[in-house]
Every structure is written in structure tokens, then in C-alpha cells.
Amino acid sequence: QVQLVESGGGLVQPGGSLRLSCAASGNPFTISPMGWYRQAPGEQRELVATITRGGSINYADSVRGRFTISRDNAKNTVYLQMNSLKPEDTAVYYCWGLREKNYWGQGTQVTVSS
User: Least enclosed by CB within 10 Å: which of 2, 72, 97, 100?
Assistant: First the structure.
């Protein structure tokens, strides 16, 4: 059974940066793609960014140019570097991975506020 564990959320001022990490365990070698989704209060969960084992990347328009997704296949870990954060980036961020089904992490809160 695959498990995804996120870390790195928190409170940051507008314009600041945060880095999220997601470590996969439980035979994660064949998980691809992996990525991040987010869900703000009262909103549907939305895609933020995804990356395959080969390095193909997809970003939501709202984060392109500000967020960077990367992946360390040796560590079975995916990262999300978030720069120039805005209040509208406030949400619970979920790590996601696809193998025979969708796998989700427990979520980590990101709050952008002054």
C-alpha cells in the first residue's frame, strides 16, 4: 500500500516563499505521475502541478512562473517550491500520485496572510 506524507506548510506573508515536500513509501517506484492539488474553503480541489518520472511537467495557469515542481526519484520524493505567494494561494495542499489508482496525502495547510 502506497503512502504519501506531506510536510512544509505554514503561514507566510504575501510575496513570501514556502517549500512543500511529499515522501512516498510502500513500493512507490512505479508511481507516475505525482503532483500537487489544493483545496480552498468552499472550493473544489484543483490541480496545481504534476510531474512524471521522466520529468514531464504540467502547471495550472494560476501558479505558472511562481511555483516549481521537482522530483527526486532516488528518494521517492516530490517537491513544490512556491514563490511570490498570494492570499489566493491559501488552501490545503494535497500530494497526489497515480499507479493502479489515485493516492492522496493527508494534506498540509498553506496560509498566505499579512
Answer: 100
Q: How far apart are CA 94 and CA 92, in angstroms?
A: 6
Tell the burial category of 106 from Cβ atoms under 10 Å away from its Cβ (0-12, 13-18, 19+). exposed
CB-based contact 8:17 (threshold 8 Å): no
Choose between 111 and 73: higher pLDDT. 111
The string of pLDDT tens digits covering residues 68-93 is 999 998 888 999 999 999 999 999 99
Asked if residue 5 has pLDDT above 70, the reply is: yes
Specify whether the CB–CB gap between 59 and 69 falls below 8 A.
Answer: yes
Give 23's DSSP letter.
E
pLDDT tens sequence across 90-105:
999 999 999 889 999 9
Dihedral sign for Cα 27, 31, 35, 36, please.
negative
Helix-strand-coil split of the chain, %, nearest 5: 5, 55, 45
